[in-house]
Amino acid sequence: MTSSENSVNVDAVILVGGKGTRLRPLTVNTPKPMLPTAGYPFLSHLLARIQAAGIKHVVLGTSFKAEVFEAYFGDGSEMGLEIEYVVEDKPLGTGGGIRNVYEKLRHDTAIVFNGDVLSGADLGQILETHRTKEADLTMHLVRVENPRAFGCVPTDADGRVNAFLEKTEDPPTDQINAGCYVFNKQLIADIPAGRVVSVERETFPQLLAEGKRVFGHVDTSYWRDMGTPDDFVRGSADLVRGIAYSPLLEGKTGEALIDASAGVRDGVILVGGTVVGRGTEIGAGCRLDNTVVFDGVTIEPGASIENSIISSGARIGANARVSGCVIGEGAHVGARCELNAGMRVFPGVVIPDGGIRFSSDQ
Question: Which CATH code is given to the segment(s) 5-230?
Answer without folding.
Answer: 3.90.550.10
